[in-house]
Amino acid sequence: MCTKDNTNSKQNGSSTTSKETEEYPKPSSSKDYNKEAGKAANGDRIRDKDGYRQRAAAFCLRLSSNDGDIQNIIIDEFGNIQNVKAPLEVLLVSGRRDGSAENYWVLPGGGVELKESTEEAVVRELREEAGIQGQVLFQIGKFIDDQRFHHTTLYALSVLKTFDEWENCENGRERRWMNLEEARRFVKPNQLAMLEQSITAVEEKWLSSVLTLHRKKWGYASLSSLPKLQPAFNLIQNKNFSFSPIKEALPEKDEDGLPIDYKTSKFTITSKRLDQLLAKVLGVSRTSLEKVILQGSVRVNEEIIIRRAHEIDEDDDIEVFIQPLEGNDKLAIAQRILVVENEFEEESGYRYKIRFWREYVTDNWKQGLRETKEEEEENV
């Protein structure tokens, strides 16, 4: 059996005592650690054109409640985080001795081998270094170490299975689950930036998933309801939270299941043109709308429309981009118009009945446009 760790032990989350905390920075001493075995690679490592060694590293989180009940973070096919009801803990492993007298803890990771993708490498390294079978959730970012000539791709992973024995454990390496404060204290200094960016990335993912869940299950997320969702955003600060307060905090819904904080309007215009309808609803000139439409700031039924003369029919769902959501550029604040009725009256023209939300949260489609354009320019 390998060196004991805290994988299945009872944890107190953020309430860890100072005595318990001080136990963490004491991985095996150099006499117990097989340095050469620890450095052994199973294959040839690869480098990029500039000579930088290609690495992959893992950022694993779990949720540990005060009664010791361990739960992993799970993200479903919609990007929603589930099982949210306990403080976060980060997985670190004891680092290899580099000749200094000080021991340290690091994110699991290592070199990418030939004919291996970075995603395959991070799953393998997590298994070898921490005895954990993981699943890649998303890429957090890429980091360059000019001193050691390393190029590291960092991924967030969920934990599928934990093993009592693993390859590097036999060589004296240990694994520890630490709360965020402890992880910041004991992580190797040159990996602190990676740790902080990982925490930020999960925070943004959490915000996005909460709003996505809000929209998919209970209607569009009106900006006015965001303060009521604040408890959800505090999860990353080790505050207990479950999804039930979200449902309780949402505004009342109408018979169609949509939040009632909309305005209903009826009007008649001479055509079914997009620019004419927007001018009527938003109270602006059709000339000023020309630039807005041509810049890709208007979607109809989630499709970007750049034709001012595009015809609007019953049940069409229109979004007009306002600005990115502060703190998360993957989301945006927009104006939403839902066409409830559309009838043609021979004497006056087209009679519309609409529902109008002045500010609500949606995905930032303009950010996606910019990223696509940048990729096309790079390929050219």
How does the SSE layout of this entry go?
Layout lengths: L17 H4 L13 H5 L13 E12 L5 E3 L1 E2 L5 E2 L5 E7 L10 E2 L2 E3 L6 H13 L1 E14 L4 E13 L12 E5 H7 L5 H27 L2 E2 L7 H4 L10 H6 L13 E7 L4 H9 L3 H9 L3 E3 L2 E2 L12 E9 L2 E18 L3 E15 L1 H15 L1
Parallel strand pairs: 1-9
Antiparallel strand pairs: 1-2, 1-5, 1-7, 3-4, 5-6, 5-10, 8-9, 11-17, 12-17, 13-14, 13-15, 15-16, 16-17
Largest sheet: 8 strands, mixed
Secondary structure tally, helices: 10
Give the helix level as a range of percent. 25-40%
CATH architecture of the largest domain: Alpha-Beta Complex
The CATH superfamily of the largest domain turns out to be Nucleoside Triphosphate Pyrophosphohydrolase
- The chain-level structural class is alpha+beta
Terminal Cα span: 55 Å
CATH topology grouping of the largest domain: Nucleoside Triphosphate Pyrophosphohydrolase
Low-confidence stretches: 9-24, 28-43, 65-86, 216-251
Listing every helix as H and every strand as E from the N terminus to the C terminus, the arrangement reads: HHEEEEEEEHEEEHHEHHEHHEEEEEH
DSSP strand content: 25-35%
- What CATH first level of the largest domain would be assigned? Alpha Beta
How many distinct beta strands?
17
Q: What is the alpha-carbon Rg in Å? A: 26 Å
Mean pLDDT: 73
Task: Specify the overall morphology.
Answer: elongated
- Tally of structural domains: 2
